[in-house]
Amino acid sequence: MKILIQNYASPISSEPLYFNQTFSMTEGLESLLWSPSSIGVFDVFDKFQPDAFVCHHMGVTNEILTYLASNTKIKVAVNITNISKENLDLLEKLISENNINCEFMFSNNYDFIDQCKPQSNVYKKILPCADIYFSPSQVPDYNLEAAIIANTYNEKIKDLESNYKSYHKMKIGTEQADDFDMNVNIIMLSSLYEKYEEIVICDTLDIAFSQIFFDAFLKAKKVSVKLPDDQEHLFTKALAEIFEDEEEDDMLNKIKNQIKTNHTSVNRSRQLIEGLV
Question: How many domains does one find in the chain?
C-alpha cells in the first residue's frame, strides 16, 4: 500500500512526519511525505500513484479535490482538528458531490474539547503523542532551573518568574515577542528538555496537552502544567482520558511508562492505518 502524506506539521505537532516515518519502516507499506511548495498536486500524485492520501483540512485545495474526484480509488483521511462547522459542512458537501473516497475524518482533540464532527463521514479521534523519531541536535551545554513554555505571555508566567533564579521563557512559533527569551517549535524542544531541571507548560489546554506534553514527559526531569484559572477543572479530565488508573506511587514514572506503551508515534500511526486498510 502506497500512502501519500501532506506535510501539515506545526510548531506543536510533527504528526505527518511520524506517520511517514512509521509507515516507511513498516513492511508492506510505502510512504511519501509531500510538501506542497516543493512539487505540484498533479505531479506528485501522478508520479507516486498513491493508494491512500492523508491531509489536513486547511491544506485541501481545488486541485486536490479535482484530482481525487477523478481518481476515486484513492482512500482519503482528513485531519479536521478545530475545523469550524461552516467549513466542515462545506468540506463534506464537496467530498459528496465529487464522489471522493473519504474513509474517515479525524481530529487530535480530547473528548471534553469542542470539536465539530462530520455528519456523513466516519470520525476517529487520534490524540497527540510522543514522537520517538526525533534525532537530538547539537546545542550548547548548560543547565537552568526551568523552561517556561507558552504561546502567549500571561499573568501566570509573570508569577512563575519569581519562583526561579535561572530560567528561559520560550515562545512557541516564529512570531517574535519581547516578553520571551527565544522562539521554539516541537522539533527544537526535543533537544532542549534535558537542559532544564523543570519544564513548565503554561498555556491553554490545546497547548498544555499537545504533543509538547508527551515529548516533555518522556525526556524532561520534571514537568509541570499551568492552565488558566477557568480551565484548571479540566486538568484531571485530561489525565483521565489519556492515562489508565493504576496503583503507582510515583506519578512521573507512571506517566512515562504509559506514554511509552500507549502514546507514541507507533500507536497513533497504527490507529491511522487501521482506518485505511
Answer: 2
Same domain, 184 and 217: yes
Kindly state whether residue 134 falls inside one of the protein's structural domains: no
The verdict on residue 92 lying in a domain is: yes
> Which range of residues forms the domain containing residue 91?
2-126+264-274
pLDDT digits (tens, 9 = 90+) for 249-270: 677 788 889 999 999 999 999 9
pTM here is 0.93
What are the DSSP calls for the chain, one per residue? -EEEEE---BTTB-HHHHHHHHHHTSTT-EEEEE-TTTS-HHHHHHHH--SEEEEEGGG--HHHHHHHHH-TTSEEEEE-TT--HHHHHHHHHHHHHTT--EEEEEE---TTS-----SSS-EEE----B-TTPPPPP-----EEEEEEESS--HHHHHHGGG-SSEEEEEESS---TT-SEEE-HHHHTTTGGGEEEEEEES-HHHHTSHHHHHHHHH-S-EEEE--GGGGGGHHHHHHHHS-----S-HHHHHHHHHHHHSBHHHHHHHHHHTT-
